[in-house]
Every structure is written in C-alpha cells, then in structure tokens.
TrEMBL record, chain A:
Pfam families, sorted: ADIP
Main location group: other
Keyword Cytoplasm (UniProt): yes
Coiled coil start-end: 131-218, 376-403
Cellular location(s): Cell junction, Adherens junction; Cytoplasm, Cytoskeleton, Microtubule organizing center, Centrosome, Centriolar satellite
Protein name from the UniProt record: SSX family member 2 interacting protein
Biased composition regions of type Polar residues, renumbered to the chain: 519-542
InterPro entries associated with the record: Adhesion_Centrosome_assoc (IPR052300), Afadin/alpha-actinin-bd (IPR021622)
Organism phylogeny: Eukaryota, Metazoa, Chordata, Craniata, Vertebrata
Sequence similarity: Belongs to the ADIP family.
Region (Disordered): 292-322, 501-542
TrEMBL record, chain B:
Organism of provenance: Felis catus
Annotated InterPro entries: Centrosome-WD_assoc (IPR052778), Quino_amine_DH_bsu (IPR011044), WD40/YVTN_repeat-like_dom_sf (IPR015943), WD40_rpt (IPR001680)
Name of the molecule in the record: WD repeat containing, antisense to TP73
Any Pfam family the entry gives: WD40
Domain of life of the native organism: Eukaryota
PANTHER family: WD REPEAT PROTEIN 8-RELATED, WD REPEAT-CONTAINING PROTEIN WRAP73
TM ranges: none
Length: 614, 434
C-alpha cells in the first residue's frame, strides 16, 4: 500500500506543495500549517474513495485489511478496532462499536477537512489576486522608479549643462568686460589723439587762414572799398573821438557803473522783498497774538475783569516792545526773536484749533448750516472793511500829526531863534492858517466817517443780536430734533464749527481790545496812533496839544461806541451784500464771454472758428 | 481780423522797421518800403543783384541789403532816397552782414570767418576784428546797444571779447571754459552773458560784463547737450532747451547752484487742442493725450530730437517751446507755477512761432494756409483769404502787436488784428486764467 501511495500522490503533492509554497510565502501561520497537513492527507482520500473501496477490501482479505486499518488508525491515534484481548492467545475480536466510532470520527474529520480545504482554496484565490495586484503594483512602482531615476539623471545632466553654460557665460562676460575696458581705453586714447589731431589741424587751419588773410587782404584789392555819396552824421550827433587811454579808462568806468547800477538795483529789490516779508511776518505775529490772547483771557474775564486787563497789559507791553525793537535791531536778532515768537504763537494756535475741533466733535452741534457759514465769511469781510476804514482814519491822523509837528517845530524855533522868526511870522501864520483850515476839513471828514462807521457798527450789532436769537431758536429746534440726526450734517458742523467759534472770539476781541488800548491788530490802529502822538510831541502848552487831546477824546468816545455795539453784532445784512458781490463776480466771466463772443462774431468775417481752452 | 492784399516777396525777406512805421520787403533785386498803415509804396530801391538779407538800422533811417553771392552790401537811406552806399568785400567774400546798434556801422563777416570788417557810415574808418569764431551765434549786442560780445577762437581755445560799440574799443577779453563754444547771448539787462558749449557737451556758463565767471551749469555728462537758450525778459531766468527733451528753467544769478526747475516733456499732462482738417478748429482733448512722435534717425547728424525753439512771452508769464521729436505740438508753460499750461497740437509740423510784443499772445504757423493764435483765453485758427494757396512759412509781429506779417514762399500779406481795447476784452489777462 505504501508503494501505491507514492504512486498516486506525486502530482497532487507537488500541487499542494506549490500551494504550500504560495501560502507560506504569503502567510506563515501555524493554523495554515495545520490545514496543509490536513489537506495533504485528505485529498487522496476523497479522490480515490471509490477505487479504494473497490480494490482495498475483498472477501478474501477482510482480516488483513481490518488489521491494516487498525494499524493505520492506531498510528493516527485512533483507538484500536479490536477488542482488548483478555488473554495472550485468544484471537482478538473486531470491535464493531469502535469501528463505527472510528468511521464516524473519520467522516467528521473528512467533512472538516473538506471545509477547511474550501476555505483554504478561497483564501488561496484571494491571496492569488492579492499577489497579482501586488505584483502589478510592484511592477508599476518599479517602472516609476525607473522613470524618475531617468528623469533625475536627465535633470542632473541639464544642471550640469547649465552650470557649464553659466561658466561659459561668466567667462564671456569677463571677456566682454575686458573688451569694454579695452575699448574704453582705446576710445580714451583715440579721444586724446583726436583732440591732439584736432588741435594740430586747427593750428594748420589757423596758419592757412592767416596766409589767406594776408593774401586776400594785403593785396591791393581795389574791390574792397566803400562807396558813399556822403558821410552821414552820428546818431547821437557827436563826433567820433580819438582812441586814447582816457577813453579806455572812461569805458572801464562806464562798465563798472553799469554793473554797479545793476547790483544796486538788485540789492534794492532784495531789500524791498525783505522788508515786505518782514512786514508780513510781523503782521502775522500780531494777528496771531490778537487771535490767541483774548481766547486765553476769556474765561478769566468772565470771572474777574481786572485780572484780564492785567494780563492784557502785560501782553501789550510785550507786543509793543517787540514792535518797537523790530525795526531798530539788527537783522539776525530780530529774525530770531520774530521766528521764535511766531513759532510759539503758531503752536498755541494749532493746539487751540485742535482743542476746538475736539470740543465740537464732542458737542455734536448740528444746527449749523450753509447760512451760518456765509455769515462767517461776511463777518470777516465786514471786519476787513472796518479795518480798512480804520486804516484810513489812521492815515488821516498821521497827516494831522505831521501838521502838528510842523507847527510844533515852528513853536520850538520860537524859543531859540526869536529874532529870525519875527520876519517869517507873517508867512508862517498864513501857512498855519491854511494848514488849520485843511486840518479842520480833514477832521470834519474824519468825524463824519467815524459817525458812519459807528452807525454801521450799531446796525451790525443789532443784526448780530437778531441772528443770535434766531440761531438760538434754531439750535433749540435742532436739539429737539436730535433724533433725526444726519451724519453728513455732523461732518459739516465739524468743518465749520472751529471757525465759527473763532468768529465769536473775534467779535469778543473787537469789543475788548479798545477798552484795553491794546495795539494788536490792524483794526485797532487808532489807539496806537494816539500813543505815538503823545510820544512824538513833547509836552508843550500849545494849541496843538489841546487839539490832540481833543482828537484823542473823540477817538475814545467813538471807540466807546464801538465797545458797546459789536457785542451783539451779527453781520447778516453785510452777508447779503457780499453775496451780491459774489454774484457780480460770478457774472463777470459771462459778460467777458459776451464780449468774447462779440469778438468772435467779428472774427467770423474771415472764416474764424474758435474754442475756449480750459 | 482783416487781411491786406497779397504782395510779392522773395526769400522770406520782409521786415517791420524798428519804429513800426515802415515795412521793407524784397522782390528779387528790388527793395520795397511801404507805409505800415496804408501799405502804399514809399520808396523803391534797386540793388545790383538778388538780395539775400535785409536789415533795418536801429533808428529806422537806413536799410542794409546784403548780396552774399557778390560779396556786396548796399545801404539805402529813407530820408534821402538819392543817398546810397555800396560796400564791396572783394575777394574776401561775405557770409554775414549786420548793423551795429547805433545804426552807423556795418559789421561784415568774410568768408571762412577770416575777420569781421566794421565799416563806418560817418567816417572813412574801417576796423577789423580778427579771429571771429564760426559758430551758431557768435555775435551778441546788449539790449542798450552799448556793448558787443564776440566769440573768438585762438590757439584752440575759445575766447569772448567784449567791445564798446561807440568806438569799437576792446573792453574785455577772456577765455571760456568750453570745448567748442556754440553760442553767446546777453541777458536783457546787459550785465550777464550766457555762453553755451557745443551739442556734444552740456555746459552753460554765465559771465559778468567784466569777464568774471558767475556760474556754470551742467545737467549731465556724456550725452547731447544744449540745443537752444532763451533769457527771460526780466534777466533773472534762463531757459535751456536740451537734446534730452527737457527745458531747464534756471535762476541766473541769485542762486546759481540751486536745483533748477525742470520741465519734463514726455508725459503731456494738460489738455491739447487738435486741429482737425475739415473744419480747422481747435478741439479740447481730454487729459491723456497721445501726441504724434517722430522716431529720430539715430545714425544721421543733427537728429530731430530735443527742444528746438524756446520763447518767453513779453510779460515773462509763459514760455513756449517746441520739441523737435514732436514737431506738431507747441508746449506752453506757466512760468510762475512752473507747470504745463497747455499743449497745442497742429496738423502739420510747426514752422515758427512768435509772441506778440505787447501781450501774451502767440502766433504759430505750420506752412499751411492758416495762421494760429493762442492766448490764455483761447485760441483761433484763421484761414488766410485770397485765391490760391497761401502757405504761411514765417511770420513776424508788428511792434505794437496790432498787425502781423505772414510770409509765404513768394508772397506776403499783413494781418490786422482787432484794436487794442477789443483785443483786451477778447483775450483777457493772464491773471484771470489759472
């Protein structure tokens, strides 16, 4: 039987071995090993079961086959098929029960094996497909690896080439640089050579020219001549002068004179420019001071009037000091002083404006509208106008002062040269009379103007008051309507509120200034003038003095009027006036255009088309 | 605007007398003097040959007619028609002739710039000035006629000589720091002389009347340099047009070494007027304007690049410039603000432009049948009436700015503008238009 097993098995076993190899390669587990063994043994059993039964056991060899089976089974660990012998010689009986048990067990085992085989087969299949897949993957990856390796090699090659190229280019660049250097050198040398040659050529040319000159000019060329009917006189009518050293010197002198004149002219211009600039600076400073000081003293003034005046007095002193020293001191010191003070004032102004802006943004006053803005401008214009008037008044006062001074001078002469004076007395008297009449007339005019001015101021005050009221009501209304607050509106307010605040302050300064006799602004020139008057005139008991005091008094009175009035001024009417002015300004271009178009009409006679440029 | 009838002309030789009373014009070898207002012929002089150059003396009493081909100059008197004078330079030849400012001397430059001969009409005296330099602008008289500056070349070195015109005495002689001097020009106040170098080198030198170097200006190196120079009427500023298409507006004496205001051309910022062919009117173009630009030929001499012409308006408020690479356009700059005021683009290349001597009004001609006028208030283009084509090649203003002579190849006519008051309203003042 052992022989047969070996005959029938090989192909299967090899097959199974192959499988075993496969499986072992894929999965090495003890359970699988076991199943292998089972498989190995079970397959021949199942396949050759029929032939087994047909060939294995016949009628004759039952005994042998049973014993063989028993033997085989016992080797496989089954219980023996024979009953246990009781004695030594007794023939062992076949134990049916054991046989059946064995058979059952074998059948169970067979079924189990079949199941296991099936499992293993499916697993095998699965593993096979896995294997295939993995192999595919492997192949693919290998391919990829190969391509990337190739790519890498390619890139490396390219890199190498590029590096090579780069090196070459570097080399080339270096060569080119060398070449450029060389060429530059060549150019330089050529240039020098060229210049040299040029010089040589030019010398030759000059020589030739000289020669030509000699040839052309020295030859008695009869053609070179001038035919004139008769000689004409010089344009200036003078005769030509001989050339001497004197004329040379005169020419020199004249030249320097011309140059000097030019320089003088220029210096004068520069001086004028300087003076102008200084004036501007000074004015700026003054305006700044006037703008800033009342704002500082405002809160205090409310509390205590006397302190305010004290402060203003101090400032006035400072202002006057700087003002007086302004024109006397040398340029540098003045410059420094002026710039410093202006810088300071400017800083104050800036901070003030910023503060105002902040305040305004906090308060959110939205009551202001365009009307208010206009009023602000109008106010400014009005003040300007008033300033102008004051300026005029000031000028008038100056003329008066001059007249007075003249008088005074004559008076002084009285004391010292009384004898001489007598002969001129009559003439002087006459002149004085004339001057007096002139002066009176001027004074009258002045008074008239002043009156009109105060009237205007009063009117202004009334209007301002009315406007204030209007504004207050309007504010109230706005405040009530606060809920319908518009953002844009608030922006408008932001823009203009600072100015409006300052305008208020302006008005304040206007009424506070004259009371304190503070020379800060152009508008309050009159008190300054009076003080000057007192200064310039020595204390002498004369009619002029009396006159001066009178004028002073009159000024004061007018000023007082001014003091009272502008407190409630609101330039409403003026604003309207200015609006009118604006309108006229706007209309002017139109009229101009009208003229222009008229012109163009005339132009069309000769086929003219025209267009305005922006 | 009215036009006179068309008169014959040759060689674009037509000039108003300095006193504004007469108009001299040439037809071949004849010189015609007309009254400016009636245009009637007052005198007719006949010269020996075709006239190539005419010039009025400063007192309007004499006219000089130069015939370069013959080497002769003929002078005619207006007061005495029978008076005549003929100057013959003989074999030395003649290339230039001009009056001295006193109107009694004639300066003739001989061929090859061998010398300048100064002929006097008062005496028999003849003076010679040797070594004049052959250059673009070698002679310059001061506005008051007192001094003459002359560029010279001696021993391969540029020199400038300053002569006193009254007796032709040498006042100053100094060498200049130039490679190859190209031109000289006095400032209108007669105290500063601007000297500029050849186009190969950017160099402008300012000399005082007494020969001191006041300042030197060089914007850059190694490139083509100065092409045109113009003094402002106030003598305070100098405009330098260079080959790189920029105009340098430089304060001449006060702060010579300060960075000058530069007027860069390439991006035209302001609007340009474009003259369209059919209706001939100026159109206002919106701000980004592309101008017709010529590509310069790089390999030829005298390339068409750079600022070829500069002119200040009489009130120094405007500066008109023309860039040769953009020949169709005239740039007008606002000098007080140092910015471009307007660009006028024409249909064809601008031949010449000239400011009205009395007011800021610019006349432009392009070689076509129209004359263009610009003022701050606007601009007009006017067709020159008359049969045939009247191609305006050149123009010149009358002294008082109320008439304008338009010159074509062989004709000329006068163009009378409106009377002063009407013109005033039409064109306005520059202050109104910013």
């Amino acid at each position: 039987m052992g022989e047969w097993m070996t005959v029938t098995d090989p192909d299967l076993s090899s097959d199974s071995k192959n499988i075993c190899q496969y499986t072992s390669e894929t999965k090495m587990s003890p359970s699988s090993l076991y199943s292998q063994q089972v498989l190995c043994s079970s397959i021949p059993l199942s396949k050759n079961v029929h032939s087994f039964f047909s060939a294995f056991c016949t009628e004759e060899n039952i005994e042998q086959s049973v014993s063989y089976l028993d033997q085989e089974l016992t080797t496989f660990g089954f219980p023996s098929l024979y009953e246990e012998s009781k004695g030594k010689d007794t023939k062992r009986e076949l134990n049916i029960v054991a046989v059946l048990n064995c058979m059952n067990e074998l059948l169970v085992l067979q079924r189990k094996n079949l199941l296991a085989q099936e499992n293993v087969e499916t697993q095998n299949l699965k593993l096979g497909s896995d294997m295939d897949h993995l192999q595919n993957c492997y192949a693919k990856l290998k391919e990829q690896l190969e391509t990337s390796r190739r790519e890498m090699i390619g890139l490396q090659e390219r890199d190498r080439q590029l590096q090579c190229k780069n090196r070459n280019l570097h080399q080339l660049l270096k060569n080119e640089k060398d070449e450029v250097q060389k060429l530059q050198n060549i150019i330089a040398s050529r240039a020098t050579q060229y210049n040299h040659d040029m010089k040589r050529k030019e010398r030759e040319y000059n020589k030739l020219k000289e020669r030509l000159h000699q040839l052309v000019m020295n030859k008695k060329d009869k053609k070179i001549a001038m035919e004139v009917l008769n000689y004409v006189g010089r344009a200036d009518g003078k005769r030509g002068s001989w050339r001497t050293g004197k004329t040379e010197a005169r020419n020199e002198d004249e030249m320097y004179k011309i140059l000097l004149n030019d320089y003088e002219y220029r210096q004068k211009q520069i001086l004028m420019e300087n003076a102008e600039l200084k004036k501007v600076l000074q004015q700026m400073k003054k305006e700044m001071i006037s703008l800033l000081s009342p704002q500082k003293q405002k809160p205090r003034e409310r509390a205590d009037d006397s302190t305010g005046t004290v402060i203003s007095d101090a400032e006035e002193d400072a202002g006057e000091l700087s003002r007086e020293s302004m024109w006397d001191l040398s340029c540098e010191t003045v410059r420094e002083q002026l710039t410093n003070s202006i810088r300071k004032q400017w800083r104050i102004l800036k901070s003030h404006v910023e503060k105002l802006d902040n305040q305004v943004s906090k308060v959110h006053l939205e009551g202001f509208n365009d009307e208010d803005v206009i009023s602000r401008q109008d106010h400014e214009q009005e003040t300007e106008k008033l300033e102008l008037e004051i300026q005029q008044c000031k000028e008038m006062i100056k003329t008066q002062q001059q007249l007075l001074q003249q008088q005074l001078a004559t008076a002084c002469d009285d004391d010292t040269t009384s004898l001489l004076r007598d002969c001129y007395l009559l003439e002087e008297k006459e002149r004085l009379k004339e001057e007096w009449s002139l002066f009176r007339e001027q004074k009258k005019n002045f008074e008239k103007e002043r009156r009109s001015f105060t009237e205007a101021a009063i009117r202004l005050g009334l209007e301002r008051k009315a406007f204030e009221e209007e504004r207050a009501s309007w504010l109230k209304q706005q405040f009530l309507n606060m809920t319908t607050f518009d953002h844009q509106n608030s922006e408008n307010v932001k823009l203009f509120s600072a100015f409006s605040g300052s305008s208020d302050r302006d008005s304040l300064t206007m009424h506070s200034r004259p009371r304190q006799k503070k020379p800060q602004n152009m508008s309050n020139g009159s008190p300054v003038c009076t003080s000057k008057l007192t200064k310039s005139l020595p204390a002498s008991p004369s009619t002029s003095d009396f006159c001066q005091t009178r004028s002073c008094a009159s000024e004061h009175s007018s000023v007082n009027v001014l003091n009272i009035t502008p407190e409630e001024t609101k330039p409403n009417q003026v604003g309207r006036e200015c609006a009118n002015q604006k309108w006229s300004m706007a209309s002017r271009p139109e009229s101009q255009e009208g003229c222009y178009s008229g012109c163009s009409l005339t132009y069309t006679n000769s086929h003219v088309e025209k267009d305005d440029l922006p | 605007m009215n036009f006179s009838e068309v008169f014959k002309l040759s060689g674009l030789l037509c000039k108003f007398s300095p006193d504004g009373k007469y108009l001299a014009s040439c037809v071949q070898y004849r010189l015609v003097v007309r009254d400016v207002h009636t245009l009637q012929i007052l005198h007719l002089y006949t010269c020996l040959d075709q006239i190539q150059h005419i010039e009025w003396s400063a007192d309007s009493l004499f006219i000089l007619c130069a015939m370069y081909k013959r080497g002769q100059v003929q002078v005619w008197s207006l007061e005495q028609p029978e008076w005549h004078c003929r100057i013959d330079e003989g074999s030395a030849g003649l290339v230039a002739s001009c009056w001295s400012p006193d109107g009694r001397h004639i300066l003739n430059t001989t061929e090859f710039h061998l010398r300048i001969t100064v002929w006097s009409l008062c005496t028999k005296s003849v003076s010679y000035i040797k070594y004049p330099k052959a250059c673009q602008q070698g002679v310059s008289f001061t506005r008051d006629g007192r001094y003459m500056a002359l560029a010279e070349r001696r021993d391969c070195q540029d020199h400038v000589s300053v002569f006193v015109c009254s007796d032709w005495q040498l006042l100053r002689h100094f060498d200049t720091e130039t490679q190859d001097l190209a031109g000289i020009e006095w400032a209108p106040n007669g105290c500063v002389l601007a000297v500029w170098d050849t186009c190969l080198e950017y160099k402008v030198l300012l000399y005082s009347l007494d020969g001191r170097l006041l300042s030197a200006y060089c914007a850059y190196e190694w490139s083509l340099g100065v092409k045109s120079v113009a003094w402002s009427p106030s003598s305070q500023f100098l405009a330098i047009g260079s080959y790189d298409g920029k105009v340098v507006y430089k304060e001449a004496e006060k702060t010579p070494r300060l960075a000058p205001g530069r007027l860069a051309f390439p991006p035209p910022r302001a609007a340009a007027g474009v003259a369209s062919p059919a209706e001939t009117k100026y159109e206002i173009a919106s701000v980004p304007v592309s101008l017709q630009t010529l590509k310069p030929v790089a390999d030829r001499a005298n390339p068409k690049i750079g600022i070829g012409a500069l002119a200040f308006s009489p009130d120094s408020y405007f500066l008109a410039t023309r860039s040769d690479s953009v020949p169709n356009a005239v740039w007008i700059w606002d000098i007080q603000k140092l910015r471009l005021f307007v660009v006028l683009e024409q249909l064809s290349p601008v031949r010449s432009f000239q400011w009205d001597p009395q007011q800021p009004r610019l006349a432009i001609c392009t070689g076509g049948g129209k004359v263009y006028l610009w003022s701050p208030a606007g601009c007009v283009s006017v067709q020159v009436p008359g049969e045939g084509d009247f191609q305006v090649l050149s123009l010149c203003w009358h002294l008082n700015g109320d008439s304008l002579a338009l010159l074509s190849k062989d004709h000329f006519c006068l163009c009378f503008l409106e009377t002063e008051d009407r013109v005033g309203t039409a064109f306005g003042r520059p202050g109104d238009h910013t």
